[in-house]
From TrEMBL:
<dbReference type="GO" id="GO:0006654">
    <property type="term" value="P:phosphatidic acid biosynthetic process"/>
</dbReference>
<dbReference type="InterPro" id="IPR002123">
    <property type="entry name" value="Plipid/glycerol_acylTrfase"/>
</dbReference>
<dbReference type="GO" id="GO:0003841">
    <property type="term" value="F:1-acylglycerol-3-phosphate O-acyltransferase activity"/>
</dbReference>
<keyword id="KW-0012">Acyltransferase</keyword>
<dbReference type="Pfam" id="PF01553">
    <property type="entry name" value="Acyltransferase"/>
</dbReference>
<keyword id="KW-0808">Transferase</keyword>
<protein>
    <submittedName>
        <fullName>1-acyl-sn-glycerol-3-phosphate acyltransferase</fullName>
    </submittedName>
</protein>
<feature type="domain" description="Phospholipid/glycerol acyltransferase">
    <location>
        <begin position="56"/>
        <end position="172"/>
    </location>
</feature>
Amino acid sequence: MIPKETTVFPTKWARKPAAIAVRDLIQKGPLNAVLNFEVSPQVSGLDSLLKLDGPAIIVANHSSHLDTPLLLLSLPDAMRRKTAFAAAADYFFDTWWRAAGSAIVFNTFPIERRGGNLSSTPGDLLADGWNVVVFPEGTRSPDGWIQRFRMGAAYLAVEHNVPVIPVGIKGSFAAMPRGRGWPVPGRPAVHVRYGDPLRAAEGESARDFAPRIASAVSALLDEESTTWYESRRRAAIGASPAQTGPDAARWRRVWESTRPMKSTDGRRRAWK
């Protein structure tokens, strides 16, 4: 068992009633307005969240700084107010002003992504009824395709006996790839798709559960590229295509990941 440690930068204050009220105003006001002005977000699969009866770990692919506000603002209000984000300690918590800003706006808490001791914060939050968002890749994709999923989310789910909600985010890399400080012009489309809750089977280890989480996210991205029926049929037989991209030069991988997405379907709805 890896020993746990408390986080260096305290963030409990960001989950006090006053901070929650301020964050709610920021998220539903200027943050939502700016996001809708810069991109065209749409969401589907929110009915999957109705199957929850307690806190959950929300797991998504990660290729852009847009992913955090997209996830937050796509959630129902009650769930959004009780959701915290695991954020890289060496990036978002390297200075006090960045740490405080991300904590108040996005309800982030620091997590080490270079190994070492585990933070006790995720488990404490889950025990207190908070949902926790984890990007298992550990960092943004450099070309829009999924990188290897680490086992942190699966470990938390097994350790604390909570479900995992898989989420596929499509188009955020094309809208704001790594290296850009602002989205590209033209309000590009970005889609957020939620999947049904996953639970570790009795006796299932985190090592065995982690690939199932990755496959669920891949199936959601496959659905964005094809159709609901085709993606479900492939998922049922374990044939969902890997979302790791073509074995090609980086420029080709970037070109493939930024191709226009298919038109919207009847189950997807525009932003609230």
